[in-house]
Amino acid sequence: MTIDPRSPVYVAGHRGLVGSAIWRRLEQAGFSQLIGATSAELDLRDQAATTAFLAEHRPAVVIDAAARVGGILANRDHPTEFLSDNLRIQVNLMDAALAVRVPKLLFLGSSCIYPKYAEQPIRESSLLTGELEPTNDAYAIAKIAGIMQVQAVRRQYGLKWISAMPTNLYGPNDNFDPTSSHVLPALIRRFHEAKTTGADKVVLWGTGTPRREFLHVDDLADACLFLLNHYDDPAPINVGVGEDLTIQELAEMVARVVGYTGAIGNDPTKPDGTPRKLLDVSRLRDLGWSPAVELEPGLAQTYAWYLDHLGADR
Questions:
Q1: Strand pairing partners for 216?
Q2: pTM score of the predicted model
């Protein structure tokens, strides 16, 4: 059933990369009762505050785009926080949504939920069939728990809650912090700084051979609205583009977009992460959705946003 644009919709994490894109997409679609709260206004790790917030606002739809996220370095160095914070955010939000019987909830996970050596492209059925990538297993376990909670609520209470697993994301409002960012915004920042300082070489972590898939966050936001209107199944569904490239190829593309003309090296003593993470997106395509933003134009748009926001406290 199509969601009425007059319905109250709570977007948890509406200031982040994903949440802000979903908020924009819902506004474009004419949704007039969007509910958001900054982390300063509502700490989702606080069970009592989260319960009170949803009891007050009683949304018809909850979109869980709130999470503690980061790249390989942040995940490797802070597994306790990545596990604890994400578990508390999810459990508090879903328990509160269940208490007021929110009829529709979309939980957003991550492609890191799948085994490190899953058959490529990765089908949704690969979940829990092998060991996880050690550099982000804490985050992955939290997200797997979220999927299980969605399925448990569906089974026990009959609510039409769903979960979606996006591939690697990028776009406006990303995190470009040098220690906590994901690979693509980190590359944009590093190549921009190399260009502006006149550095003759940029050294990448790892061998450059791992393959990754990248989805523009505006495409994910569009997919989220599509799924809320067209998907009703306990199984998680992959959201991606169905194509990937090596980190080396990505770096060369970013360098081209940024205008950096120096050398690109590698540091094989640093971790590569999962060798490949290409999602099988056939289930979503069969429903009638496909992405619209090509990678290089999307990178150019993201770099323009980065330039406009240099110096902002993010």
A1: 170
A2: 0.93
Closest listed residue to residue 101, CA positions, set 163, 159, 33, 162: 159
Residue 212 in contact with residue 168, Cβ under 8 Å?
A: yes
Instruction: Note whether 94 and 153 are within 8 A (CB).
Output: yes
Instruction: Identify the CA nearest to 105 among candidates 52, 168, 46, 158.
Output: 158
The CA–CA distances, whole Å, from 286 to 178, 219, 231, 238, 280 equal 39, 17, 11, 12, 11
Distance CA 296, CA 261 (A): 17
Per residue in 54-81, pLDDT tens? Answer: 999 999 999 999 988 766 666 677 788 8
Q: Where are the beta strands (DSSP E) in 187-257?
A: 201-205, 211-212, 214-216, 237-239, 245-246
Rounded Cα–Cα distance for residues 218 and 292 (Å): 9
For a pLDDT cut of 70, what percent of the chain falls above it? 97
Nearest-angstrom CA–CA distance, 273 and 255: 22
What's the rounded Cα separation, in Å, for the pair 69 and 181?
Answer: 8
Q: Which residues contact 272 (CB under 8 A, 6 or more apart)?
A: 205, 206, 207, 209, 210
Catalytic residues: 139
DSSP per residue, 141-180: HHHHHHHHHHHHHHHHH----EEEEE-EEE-TT----TTT
